[in-house]
Write a structure and sequence with these properties.
The chain is α/β, with parallel strands linked by helices. It has a single domain, classed as Alpha/Beta hydrolase fold, catalytic domain (Rossmann fold, 3-Layer(aba) Sandwich), CATH 3.40.50. It contains 11 helices and 8 strands. The chain has helices at about 5-10, 20-35, 90-100, 120-135, 135-140, 155-170, 190-195, 205-215, 250-260, 280, 285-304; strands at about 40-50, 60-65, 75-80, 105-110, 145-150, 175-180, 240-245, 265-275. The strands form 2 sheets. Strands 1-2-4-3-5-6 form a 6-stranded mixed β-sheet, with helices on both faces. A two-stranded parallel ribbon has the order 7-8. Helix 4 crosses helix 6 (about 155-170).
């Protein structure tokens, strides 16, 4: 779906809907309208797992490839949605594709969302999802040493933050992270954060709003806004990509450069002409196929 088609379907763009409950409903309906053929090579199972200590249990969806023998890779998948919308359903097609094309067991985490549940609730939920996945490799059916975390936009924020917490607390071993189009800088001071405005897709005003919802009035630390992290050494090898007309362009590029400077093997791609979420709304476009092709290839190489 080109940007013009998106704006025709939802005048003003999804992020232009002020009521967050209505925004979620419109986004779900729009994703439901996109073609999503069934994939007989992937089985799906909805489960409930323990949440963080003292918090509610978590919904997850487990995707298994046909013929999985326990030696393949595993992926913790964290959906996007600016910390305030998106769900297991809205990125079901992405999780299915990762499972099918990579032969990976994928665990998609259904975390609590802002503004009803601000930071650290989403972060804590996603870390609990990682811990559970890593502790149940035999049951889930993947090799313990072949675990990655993948997520886009706000899911990319949580991907990085969860990897930092695992590093800092000697938590589960993670072989690779893929935070694509990452929402990681709450300051909104980069050139692209001032440049990308009023385009109808996710832009400056929406980013400021969603950060306020996520932080809930508390100051950001490195786990809330990974761009604030002072030490990136010791993180897993990473793949980061972003579009040239994405509000997150400069924070993504800057973070990738800092990872490289810290000695973290990092692959970076900047896609000409891509707005935020373009490959989700138009996965079969030439641009969408190129973006997803690069991502799939990177995960395959990293988890080989």
């Amino acid at each position: 779906m080109a940007l013009e088609q998106l704006l025709a379907a939802v005048p003003g763009g999804i992020a232009g809907i002020p009521d967050v409950v209505q925004r979620r409903a419109v986004f779900e309906a729009l994703i439901d309208s996109l073609p999503a053929p069934a994939n007989p090579g992937v089985s799906k199972q909805n489960r409930t797992i323990p949440g963080p200590s003292g918090d509610p249990n978590l919904p997850v969806r487990v995707y298994r490839p046909a013929g999985a023998d326990g030696t393949g890779p595993g992926i913790v998948f964290i959906h996007g949605g600016a910390m305030s919308f998106g769900s297991l359903e809205t990125e079901d097609a992405v999780a299915t594709m990762l499972c099918d094309q990579l032969g990976a067991v994928v665990v998609s985490v259904g975390f609590r969302q802002a503004p009803e549940n601000p930071y650290p609730a989403p972060f804590d939920d996603c870390y609990a999802g990682l811990v559970w996945t890593a502790a149940n490799t035999a049951e889930l059916g993947f090799a313990p040493g072949r675990l990655a975390i993948v997520g886009g936009s706000s899911g990319a924020n949580l991907t990085i933050a969860v990897a930092m917490r695992a590093r800092d607390s000697q938590g589960p071993s993670i072989r690779f992270i893929m935070p694509f189009s990452p929402m990681i800088d709450d300051t909104n001071t980069t050139a692209s954060s001032h440049e990308i405005t009023d385009i109808g897709a996710f832009d400056r005003s929406h980013n400021i709003e969603c950060w306020a919802w996520y932080l809930g009035g508390r100051p950001a630390d490195q786990y809330a806004a990974p761009a604030r992290a002072s030490d990136l050494a010791g993180l897993p090898p990473a793949f980061i990509d972003v579009g040239t007309v994405d509000v997150f362009r400069d924070e993504a590029v800057g973070f990738a450069q800092r990872l490289m400077a810290a000695g973290v093997p990092t692959e970076l791609h900047v896609h000409p002409g891509a707005y935020h979420g373009a490959e989700t709304f138009a996965p079969e476009s030439a641009l969408g196929r190129r973006i997803w092709g690069l991502r799939i290839d990177a995960v395959r190489r990293a988890l080989a």
